[in-house]
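Thread amino acids onto this structure.
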């Protein structure tokens, strides 16, 4: 007969399930170098995960959360793959120096500034070979903008590959050698220029309407100092080019 006071001993497993002591517990799993924290609505990387696993994590998956910053990422010195899909990361996103990271997915976030992101990736992630930005405004395809077409997306690819020529895979397709060659040629001209919003344009047009600029000389604005006259003239022009001679042949003159 089993003793009532006996405690149950969990079965041995290579998977660790960790639960923080917060009011709403955050669950994450670590197994074989992979740390996962999925769908927990966290806004930053859990501190307990950083303390316990930052030094041994090679793959970090933080998908389906509410991440707005990645401050704790600097502690993951051995990280090779990072998955940040379906979060709330925006143009304030800045990566620390990570020399081992080769795979990064940022699908379905709130990134609009492609230039700023690529500048940061180019300087901080020198080994990056796989990048996916689908579902962000910065990636002009039909997942993010219904009014974009294949040409818009191809221009985006050329610009990204011009900035990050070491990429082997971009979004959902591998990078072709011909794309790299073409990106070197046209990439500098594929930068996307953001248009002003309708409110900014409207405000600008109103300011122009209120402008005192005029192409006329300053003195011409004073009606008392005009240089023109109006009235009848006693002189009549009867020369070769007068209006009255338009239908007269030269030999009639």
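Threaded sequence (253 positions):
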């Amino acid at each position: 007969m089993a003793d009532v006071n006996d405690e149950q001993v969990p079965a041995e497993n290579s998977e660790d399930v960790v639960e923080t002591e917060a009011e709403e517990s955050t669950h994450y799993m670590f197994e074989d170098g992979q740390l996962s924290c999925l769908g927990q609505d966290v806004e930053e990387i859990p501190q307990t995960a950083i303390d316990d696993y930052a030094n041994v994590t090679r793959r970090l998956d933080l998908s389906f959360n509410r991440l707005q910053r990645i401050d704790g990422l600097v502690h993951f010195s051995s990280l090779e793959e990072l998955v940040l899909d379906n979060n709330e990361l925006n143009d304030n996103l800045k990566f620390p120096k990570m020399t081992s990271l080769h795979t990064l997915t940022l699908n379905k976030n709130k990134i609009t500034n492609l230039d700023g992101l690529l500048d940061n990736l180019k300087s901080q992630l020198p080994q990056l070979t796989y990048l996916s930005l689908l579902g962000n405004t910065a990636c002009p395809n039909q997942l993010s903008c219904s009014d974009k077409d294949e040409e818009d997306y191809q221009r985006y690819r050329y610009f990204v590959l011009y900035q990050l020529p070491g990429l082997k895979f971009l979004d959902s397709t591998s990078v072709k050698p011909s794309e790299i060659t073409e990106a070197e040629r046209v990439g500098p001209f594929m930068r996307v220029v953001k248009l002003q919003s309708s409110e900014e344009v409207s405000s600008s047009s109103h300011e122009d309407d209120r402008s005192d600029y005029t192409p006329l000389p300053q003195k011409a604005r004073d009606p008392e100092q005009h240089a023109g006259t109006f009235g009848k003239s006693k002189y009549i022009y009867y020369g070769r080019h007068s209006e009255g001679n338009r239908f007269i042949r030269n030999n009639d003159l």
